[in-house]
Amino acid sequence: MIEKPKEPPSDLAVTGIYFFSPVIYYHINKLKPSKRGEYEITEAIQSLINAGGNVGYEIITGWWKDTGTVDDILAANRLVLERIDHDFDNKNIQGKVSIGKDTRISDDSLIRGPAVIGDNVLIEGNAYIGPFTSVGDNSVIRRASVENSIVMKNSVLDTDNIIVDSIIGENTKVMSSINLKPVGKRMIVGENSIIYI
Asked: The domain 77-196 is classified under which CATH number: 3.40.50.720, 2.160.10.10, 3.10.420.10, 1.10.10.60?
């Protein structure tokens, strides 16, 4: 296995989908930073192969999308959401939308698909969930407008702002700051964060 070779020996690529047993940690602990200054998982796998470890693979012949950047992740989200087949046409839910169990949507809020809303989500306070948005389980969207974004589980968006092209990590709170006027925001927010905007 070669990490980002200048001259690839074949047209195959590692997709980054791995299932490891604990033995991989032995090989990870032997790693030194690469020329890029990073610890390369491919080197740990090659070390396991060199040691006679049991390493299998499967060639993917169907659809695959590299998700190495925020824009790639949002593009993959859009591709997945385009496959939704639940079609709504009512006051609060329009288009292709998948809604999880025990999710509550207030009468003054709107979801416009394609969108996926997880289980036990609360959407209220004139909130707007726009196309190509995924909302994780146990999240709260209050007042916010969210479009072309991913909101991971257990997050709270309680703001008058417009959030676009963003990834909001797990257990994150995005709250309004009193002194800011509503404008579009693009965010890449890590897990367990609290942001006042």
From this structure: 2.160.10.10
